[in-house]
Amino acid sequence: MGDIGINTRYLSSNRGVIKIIQIVVGFIICSLLCASWHGGRSCFGEGRLGYCSGLNFVVLIINIVLFVINFLNILAWRL
Question: Which parts of the chain span the membrane according to its record (predicted)?
Answer without folding.
Answer: 20-38, 58-77
